[in-house]
């Protein structure tokens, strides 16, 4: 007997050493990968493109107009508008300064000269210089605009000067996106660090999930960088910012779930390796299902007609895939090496204690749900339904130029000056391409549209002098280009209504085959494409998530129940956010892409917490019965899922450091939605519904036909 015991101890020792060597090898391997991949996390801006026009679908009217416009110019250009204002009236000295500046503008590399003469306002208080910038400059357009601002100089003796127009706006956007890497990553790291310290109250344990999350981000950055550099995927500043918070948020969520299960198993096993093996088997299916749900939901964005949406899908999916790989290999190895000491000073002992005893508050919440299941789910459903009424306050679905930024940029200030002294569409006219023989009739139809201030054909001499209304139009391949100056700012709702009416009016001209483009037409086509994407992608995402849930839970009723609650939570989030945007932040509305992005992230991430809960509930149901399984699952997962929700909400809130309204809105929406999911939906609504329905929630699996066990009856009491 003693010899047999010795052999067991020797076998256990060899097994422990083998496990340790495997863990060391995995950790060292990932540290090497992290060292190689780390530098790429700061180089994503090198391969990001932020040319909004290129995001349009190829069959959009504005896209076709851009293609036709290339034939009317030697070089396609994007105009910068340099506007000078003196409220007391432009002086002769001001005119001389503007003329001198215009001569210097023409010498800036990237500017296509000669420049047209300065345009005076009718009230004599402003002068405007149109500076065409070569489109081949690409991202370097920001450098050209910066040089123009340097030439124009600061305000002087009451004369203000601003550089605006499409080029000025694009330059300001590029400046914001190129600054994403440092501040956003730093804020995200600090937020995650603080929350981990609060959750674990350990000076050691927080290092493991943060190191694993950082490795996940580095690994994702390598793949995204190489794929974007080789034009396999498109990366823009928006996708880059979301990748950062998504990887750290989701990675920390997965880490919290695995660590909580590991701690639970340490109470049941003497050796950390055995505890991790059991914890991994229990937590990995839920983590993989959660990650797969998010990845597939994000890849549904490939169905979008907008390149900006298609860019986000693969980039974010790569981030989640890298996170899954790291969190299910690197993190377990770190935890095994850390053993029980990683949890110091709250070290879990191998006392075989019921895990529910460590979750007193959640055990009390579980008992509350059991005693009042039906009132709980009815009250929470009604409360969420009332919040959905706020959706009517969402406001405009197209943000104007002055509404894009949370700060007042030079391009915004310049656009306000133009709106005060010129027809607001000056410098960004709508372009109309039509047959030469119908040009006059199309021009008359366009001029008759309310909101169109003036219509004129583009002539051969437009680039060398002031427009001559009597000059013959330039004809290219039998087509004539007309320019329609709009009365409203080009990024306003009024201008978009005018474009829609303009298209209807010119299309009524027989045989004209007109194509309407320009800055405002791009916004219109983007908004229409966003509506189409929303109607197509949202149902696909719901079907995909339903299939994944059905496979994971091996049931039909439970997946339908979970999807219904998450959709209700999404609508409630939109309603609550609409009130926050309007009455707290004073935002005028949301971007056209906001509802789709909010849906994909909230539903995909929100369903995560229900997956974590219901996969554990199913595991406990096999042992205890359905209703007792619901209570046990809620008790043991309540704390970790709530912590995970707070982490994800806080990391997405880090988007608020960027001065872009659309990213601030998305960050707030995800934060609010995740908190609703974790605190209300997952903690009260889903458990109460599942408890009230009972075994039938697992229909048509065998669990739905299982009789109530004595354990279940005892727990219910």
Automatic annotation (TrEMBL):
* UniProt keyword annotation of Transmembrane present: yes
A Pfam entry, by short name: MMPL
Recite the UniProt keywords alphabetically: Cell membrane, Membrane, Transmembrane, Transmembrane helix
The record ties this protein, via InterPro entries, to: MMPL_dom, Mycobact_MmpL, SSD
Kindly give the membrane topology term recorded for this protein.
Multi-pass membrane protein
Residue ranges annotated as transmembrane are 21-40, 176-199, 206-228, 240-262, 283-304, 316-337, 376-396, 536-553, 560-584, 596-617, 629-650, 656-676
Q: Record's superkingdom? A: Bacteria
Record's keyword annotation contains Membrane: yes
SSD domain boundaries: 242-337, 563-691
Query: What residue stretch is flagged as signal peptide?
Result: none
Location comes to: Cell membrane
- SUPFAM superfamilies for the chain: Multidrug efflux transporter AcrB transmembrane domain
Predominantly, its location class is: membrane
Q: GO cellular-component terms in the record?
A: plasma membrane
The family annotation for this protein states: Belongs to the resistance-nodulation-cell division (RND) (TC 2.A.6) family. MmpL subfamily.
What protein name does the entry list?
Answer: Putative drug exporter of the RND superfamily
Q: Which organism is it from?
A: Micromonospora halophytica
């Amino acid at each position: 007997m003693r010899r047999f015991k010795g052999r067991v101890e020797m076998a256990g020792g060899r097994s422990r050493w083998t496990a340790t060597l495997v863990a060391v090898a995995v950790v060292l391997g990932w540290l090497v990968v992290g060292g190689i991949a780390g530098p790429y996390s700061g180089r994503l801006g090198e391969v990001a493109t932020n040319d909004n026009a290129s995001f349009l679908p190829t069959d959009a009217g504005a896209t076709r107009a851009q293609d036709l416009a290339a034939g009317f110019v030697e070089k396609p250009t994007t105009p910068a508008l340099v506007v000078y204002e003196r409220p007391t009236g432009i002086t002769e000295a001001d005119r001389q300064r503007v003329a001198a500046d215009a001569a210097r503008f023409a010498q800036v590399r990237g500017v296509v000269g000669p420049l047209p003469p300065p345009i005076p306002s009718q009230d004599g208080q402003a002068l405007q210089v149109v500076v065409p910038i070569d489109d081949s400059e690409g991202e370097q357009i920001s450098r050209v605009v910066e040089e123009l601002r340097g030439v124009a100089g600061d305000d002087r003796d009451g004369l203000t000067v601003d550089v605006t127009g499409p080029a000025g706006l694009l330059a300001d956007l590029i400046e914001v996106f190129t600054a994403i890497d440092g501040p956003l990553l730093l804020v995200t790291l600090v937020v995650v660090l603080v929350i981990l310290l609060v959750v674990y109250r350990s000076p050691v344990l927080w290092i493991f999930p943060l190191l694993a999350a950082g490795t996940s981000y580095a690994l994702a950055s390598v793949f995204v960088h190489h794929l974007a550099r080789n034009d396999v995927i498109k990366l823009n500043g928006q996708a880059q910012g979301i990748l950062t918070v998504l990887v750290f948020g989701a990675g920390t969520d997965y880490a919290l779930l695995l660590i909580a299960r590991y701690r639970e198993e340490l109470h049941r096993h003497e050796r950390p390796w055995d505890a991790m093996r059991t914890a991994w088997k229990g937590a990995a299916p839920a983590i993989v299902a959660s990650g797969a749900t998010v990845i597939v939901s994000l890849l549904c964005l490939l169905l979008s007609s907008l390149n900006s949406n298609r860019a986000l899908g693969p980039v974010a999916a790569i981030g989640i895939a890298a996170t899954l790989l790291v969190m299910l290999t690197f993190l377990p190895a770190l935890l095994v090496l850390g053993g029980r000491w990683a949890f110091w000073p709250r070290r879990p002992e191998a006392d075989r204690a019921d895990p529910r005893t460590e979750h007193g508050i959640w055990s009390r919440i579980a008992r509350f749900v059991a005693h009042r299941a039906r009132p709980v789910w009815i009250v929470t459903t009604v409360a969420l339904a009332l919040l959905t009424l706020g959706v009517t306050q969402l406001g405009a679905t197209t943000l104007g130029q002055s509404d894009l930024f949370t700060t007042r940029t030079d391009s915004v200030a310049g656009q306000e000056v133009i709106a005060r002294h010129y027809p607001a569409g000056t410098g960004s006219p709508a372009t109309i391409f039509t047959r030469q023989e119908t040009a006059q009739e199309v021009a008359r139809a366009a001029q008759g549209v309310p909101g169109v201030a003036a219509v004129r054909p583009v002539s051969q001499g437009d680039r060398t002098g002031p427009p001559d209304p009597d000059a013959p139009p330039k004809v290219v391949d039998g087509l004539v280009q007309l320019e329609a100056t709009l009365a409203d700012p080009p990024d306003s709702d009024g201008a978009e209504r005018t474009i829609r009416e303009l298209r209807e009016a010119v299309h009524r001209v027989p045989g004209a085959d007109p194509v309407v483009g320009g800055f405002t037409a791009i916004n219109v086509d983007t908004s229409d494409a966003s509506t189409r994407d929303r109607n197509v992608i949202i149902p696909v995402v719901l079907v995909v998530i339903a299939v994944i849930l059905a496979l994971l839970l091996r049931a039909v009723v439970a997946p339908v129940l979970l999807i219904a609650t998450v959709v209700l939570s999404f609508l409630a989030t939109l309603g609550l956010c609409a009130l926050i945007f309007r009455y707290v932040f004073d935002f005028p509305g949301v971007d056209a892409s906001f509802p789709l992005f909010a849906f994909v992230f909230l539903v995909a991430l929100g369903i995560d917490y229900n997956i974590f809960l219901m996969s554990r509930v199913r595991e406990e149901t096999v042992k205890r019965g359905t209703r007792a399984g619901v209570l046990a699952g809620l008790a043991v997962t309540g704390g970790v899922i709530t912590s995970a929700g707070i982490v994800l909400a806080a990391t997405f809130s880090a988007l608020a450091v960027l001065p872009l309204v659309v990213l601030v809105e998305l960050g707030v929406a995800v934060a609010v939605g995740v908190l609703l999911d974790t605190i209300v939906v997952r903690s009260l609504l889903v458990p109460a519904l599942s408890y009230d329905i009972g075994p039938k929630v697992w229909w048509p699996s065998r669990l739905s036909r299982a009789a109530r066990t004595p354990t279940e009856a005892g727990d219910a009491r």
